[in-house]
Amino acid sequence: MRRILGTLLILAGMGIVAFAAFQFIEHRVNMQEAMAEANTLIRQSSTVDPSADEHADQATYQNQLLARAKFDPQLDEVIGVLEVPKLEAELPIIEGTEEEMLARGVGHFSGTAFPMDNEQILLSGHRDTVFRNFDKLAVGDRFIVTLPYGTFEYEIKSTDIVDKDDTSVIRSMGTEVLVVSTCYPFRYVGNAPERFVFYAYPVEGEDSRDS
User: Fold this and answer.
1) Among 197, 191, 73, which residue's Cα sits nearest to residue 134?
2) Using only C-alpha atoms, what is the Rg of the chain?
3) Which helix (H) or strand (E) holds 12?
4) In the chain, how many H helices and how many E strands?
5) 10-29: b or e for each residue (b if 16 or more CB lie within 10 Å)?
6) Is 55 annotated in the active site?
7) Which of 42, 141, 172, 203 is the most exposed place for a label (fewest CB within 10 A)?
8) Distance, C-alpha 172 to centroid of its chain
9) What sign has the CA pseudo-torsion 35, 38, 42, 47?
10) Residue 49, CA atoms < 13 Å, CB-side half-sphere
């Protein structure tokens, strides 16, 4: 009886490991596909037809404002790339933060702003997939967001830890702030009880937009 029980436990353990491995592989495939789509989107948006716009090679701030006004992504669309220089990571950004979106990349919380809106931009991701090793980030590190209408750089100025049910993180801030949220503690097994939040502000004194 003990031998049978032991065998069953071993098989159950093997099943759990196999399922976890399958989920990891599936996520990697989904993220790679989304990243390829993001790169295509960015490449196409930067491909200019000189005959259509004689000033197209000078993507001015005004041009970007006009492009931003036309930028209206739908749920589950790939919209851009989040780069984390310190971790040498490039991650696809998906519109929406439902589980199926987060399974493909970093989710943009619909209803929050985008770069150039002068308000809160909220991105979320899983700590054990797209935001792996985010425990290594600190104040002073940077995020780079690339969307079809430009590239925008932000520096982490502060961090916070809140309860997983604390919705006060999502709020009007009256200025442009990139807020990046993930589950916490970083090495927690199971559903984490808290959220770790990075507050990053536009880099001052540098041209962080495409030129």
Assistant:
1) 197
2) 20
3) helix 2-46
4) 3, 8
5) eeeeeeeeeeeeeeeeebee
6) no
7) 172
8) 20
9) positive
10) 3
What tokens were used for 20? Answer: 């976890």
Cis? peptide before 73, omega within 30° of 0 = no
d(CA 106, CA 124): 6
Whole-prediction pTM: 0.80
Residue at token pair 């770069």: 115
Distance CA 34, CA 129 (A): 14
Convert the pLDDT of each residue in 78-93 to its tens digit: 999 999 999 999 999 9
pLDDT tens digits, one per residue of 92-139: 999 999 999 999 999 999 999 999 999 999 999 999 899 999 999 999
Q: What is the 3-state secondary structure (H, E, C) of 23-78?
A: HHHHHHHHHHHHHHHHHHHHHHHHCCCCCCCCCCCCCCHHHHHHHHHHCCCCCCCE
Count other C-beta atoms under 10 Å from residue 198's C-beta: 23
The amino acid that residue 146 corresponds to is T
Question: What pLDDT does residue 117 have?
Answer: 97
CB-CB neighbours of 130 under 10 Å? 27
Please report the pLDDT score of residue 130 as a whole number: 93
In angstroms, the CA 67 to CA 41 distance is: 14
